[in-house]
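Lab notebook, page 48
Experiment: co-folding of the full assembly
Goal: obtain a model of how the components sit together before planning crosslinking
Operator: M.T.
Materials (sequences as entered):
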Amino acid sequence: MHTDFAHLQKRLPAWLEESRQLAEHGKVAGYIPGLARAPLRRLGISLHSITGEQLAAGECGAAFTLQSISKVFSLLLALMDRGEQGVFEKVGMEPTGDDFNSMLKLELVEPGKPFNPLINAGAIAVASLIRGDGPAEKSARLLDLIRTVAGDATIGWNEEVYRSESATAHRNRSLAYFLKDNAVLDDEVEPTLEVYFRQCAIEVNCGQLARMGLVLASGGKDPRSGSELIPRRYVQIAKTFMITCGMYNASGEFAIQVGIPAKSGVSGGILALVPGELGIGLVGPALNDKGNSVAGVHLLQTLSRQYDWSMF
Amino acid sequence: MHTDFAHLQKRLPAWLEESRQLAEHGKVAGYIPGLARAPLRRLGISLHSITGEQLAAGECGAAFTLQSISKVFSLLLALMDRGEQGVFEKVGMEPTGDDFNSMLKLELVEPGKPFNPLINAGAIAVASLIRGDGPAEKSARLLDLIRTVAGDATIGWNEEVYRSESATAHRNRSLAYFLKDNAVLDDEVEPTLEVYFRQCAIEVNCGQLARMGLVLASGGKDPRSGSELIPRRYVQIAKTFMITCGMYNASGEFAIQVGIPAKSGVSGGILALVPGELGIGLVGPALNDKGNSVAGVHLLQTLSRQYDWSMF
Amino acid sequence: MHTDFAHLQKRLPAWLEESRQLAEHGKVAGYIPGLARAPLRRLGISLHSITGEQLAAGECGAAFTLQSISKVFSLLLALMDRGEQGVFEKVGMEPTGDDFNSMLKLELVEPGKPFNPLINAGAIAVASLIRGDGPAEKSARLLDLIRTVAGDATIGWNEEVYRSESATAHRNRSLAYFLKDNAVLDDEVEPTLEVYFRQCAIEVNCGQLARMGLVLASGGKDPRSGSELIPRRYVQIAKTFMITCGMYNASGEFAIQVGIPAKSGVSGGILALVPGELGIGLVGPALNDKGNSVAGVHLLQTLSRQYDWSMF
Amino acid sequence: MHTDFAHLQKRLPAWLEESRQLAEHGKVAGYIPGLARAPLRRLGISLHSITGEQLAAGECGAAFTLQSISKVFSLLLALMDRGEQGVFEKVGMEPTGDDFNSMLKLELVEPGKPFNPLINAGAIAVASLIRGDGPAEKSARLLDLIRTVAGDATIGWNEEVYRSESATAHRNRSLAYFLKDNAVLDDEVEPTLEVYFRQCAIEVNCGQLARMGLVLASGGKDPRSGSELIPRRYVQIAKTFMITCGMYNASGEFAIQVGIPAKSGVSGGILALVPGELGIGLVGPALNDKGNSVAGVHLLQTLSRQYDWSMF
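Observation: model returned without errors.
Model output:
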């Protein structure tokens, strides 16, 4: 175990305030009201250790939507539902270097399947692989998984955000029809997108997110009971994607500078983990130009350097 | 007048049969039954001269859908409805070198407006500019224009083709949502696409198409009465686009090898014209790899060389 | 004949001054001193009619280098040396919609040959097709053609510009090695580039350029003697490319707004012509963001509208 | 320590023979004779453990050139010479999803610096950062580092391969001039490429490569003496890039399927390591369509699954 919790407890508030200053250089996502209302300078972090310790600092109680962070769990559920082969015949394993909503590689690289499950095109393809009788059941099954992993049955959807996403998501519809044209989607576009928009609108706080990270850090086991919630191999796959593609097209830089599996969302949330050690939930709505929480990335980098978290 | 009609009448059947041989190297569009049923070796041509002469050869009576040829007339109607400025703030004037359904330049080149009105993205944007209270009225107004230009009030839509296009057009939906996301479309996607799919499904024969070409060759005037059907400047714009972008991404080659304004469709139809002289309607469903009638292009090249048709 | 020379003579100075105002919105090419020294507000135009009339206005005596305008004549010489087949197996016929020095389509579209002879990659390929024992002879043969067409044996190279181009042309070297890798160039890179840089550095004035345009407007014939300087078919090919690709990736817009064959250069020169009627030489060093003379394009548009020059 | 060496010793020959069968589905690089001569079915592997054990199987004594594997060590030397900031102002940290010799992102993504140091463009930029008075000294310094890390002062260049690479590397020259144009290269192109071609031509065998891997697995320390050969932070950076970009545009898949830092070369060599445990050197000249040793990747996947090597 790298991290000295007593030391961390003392230093965390100051580090957080230092990182919070960077929020001024970022921008809150403004394309829907449910995101645009978030305070620019909000910054909260929660850390859960495998030995049962918990720490928090900043605005930790604030609720925010998972957005792209949900892609990790839809991937896990699709893997549980379809197996590796079933998932990877529809979506690839490669980072792209392009924007999360880019269509370039879909058009340029045969056979037009999404490069990985963490870009939007890939996540839409993954959403279509979740089993269930219609979008309501699929969405409910994914929410169930997230409740289980977060250890909190009260987690739900933010209906306003769901409706706003659905109303404004022209680019995601464009991606989905492109996939449909390439025969990557077997389902119809709108029911698939309903699942996708619902998963983006699942609402959590930092503590719940830290617990979700801790389950991944534990290789898929319930941190208390030790029982398997998600097969270890699928967690391994998810953690690998979090390193190679988790932070949009700044994933490579994050791997060099922080070096731990992480997934960000446009709400400013970041799910991160130190394998075998820590789950981390963070929110900081001010985004940098790659779409990651500017203060959040800075804080994780500070912690990683301080406690030598890099896996590499 | 370059073309000796007496000479042409004698030679045309042999030239047509020679070009027909090339159909073996092409393929009939197979994505919907209404196109796939067309005979591979069908080839028909009709020529109407400004002096009132008419010639035809091959399977000229066969009906086929306009498909992309309709883009010329939706552009003309949008220009009549909105003026040059109204149209060109939504769609550009440049050839692309890309496939007709490509999204590359929409993503790569700011501000994401379609490069020209004859690629699919541009034609969808143009369809949204036609005035009318809903898609039915817009479609009816475009059909009216085409009936007027063709001088035949019996022209209508092929309902089967319309329904098939609408059911399978995932790529066009993808393009339309991309445009919506870029604020190029003010209307909703589905009503806009209804206009677009309907225009593609307008059914003509070679004679009607030749008459349409003759109106363009006459600068927009009714060839008999001399009255203006379309303002001359808009016809000039249309003819320019037919040279620079009319034959998909083989437009440059067609300009070099044939040198006259033309627009092709996936049905194998080609609308062409010799300015001030001739309107030409042609159908040959076997397409080359750029999507143009392989026999039709060959026949036009033969005629252009024989009678020195090139504008250049 | 559309153009009333007496009327034009009276009005031209005022139109030129009006267009000159636009120079403020452009920028003189600054990458080499030989270009950067040109005055921003310089504007000169010369018109030669097929009936022997000549008109000039503005700073017509100023010398400037042909730059990309030379691509028209290297294409003509390569066609005379190799025939259509010999040229078009190395370079295509399609406009690209990309920047003149783009490598995108070379990488993305098989088999990696340049899309047309008027983008840099295509012009480098064309330069390699000119016959001659080494770059000096090739360059001399091209200069000879230009002297003949301009009717002026005193035309030569600007050695300073040649040396500067050669010293700074990293992007063109990059393009040339890319072509070499794709087996489009049979010659070595540096001797080919020497020919290319020399052709760009040929120095003319507006009157000489107008005479060059007049030869093209006459279908390749000497406007005085009527003897053939360039085969008519090759001139036809050149004029077609000038319409589809002559004004960089604003060629489509120029075709719509002006409608005559033209080729621009980074020196602010424009060679244009009204087929069967006029040759035009123009210089205006202030360039718009597409690389064309901002005042020059405006002046040509004024004249085209006034005298109905559009071919379409 | 995951790997049971006694068990491995017994099973390795059979696993190697099984993987060797896959060589039939690959192709030996044929662009220069020095690579083309390598036997298609060659397969050799050497493993050095941190506890001093060594194992080998197959054709382990065969010499082969490092090719792209050298990029790891030129990066390390450049980091030692210039520091992180000095390197990363010239080259990025992101995987691309494109071919190793692609120019797309250089043209499309501002400001045109290479996305990472393991694609060709990035490695050329890195080569220019190595300190030394001219290419000979730079090359000698890099060879020295490799000799030190391999623990073998007899390692040298394959002069024939060096000369062939230099003679045929039109695409790399194209990349280098593109970088020069973008001001990424401060040095001249040819001296920079001399360093780059020389590093590619360094000749090793599997045992030497395994020793190089072991130094990286040890965080930069000499495995015997424990003295620091390379600063630990720079080794961390190198290992991170090996995960995100080490196996061309199959790096993501390799991370999912094998999960250890690795770097492949067009000679069929692969340098790999299990952090804190093992260095691995491997050669199998038959390449898959991504450019990686087809048998080698299969063998590493077998071993990783057997001994649970994945870092994730």
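Interpretation: Residues 41 and 307 of chain B are 25 Å apart (CA to CA).
Next step: discuss with group before ordering constructs.
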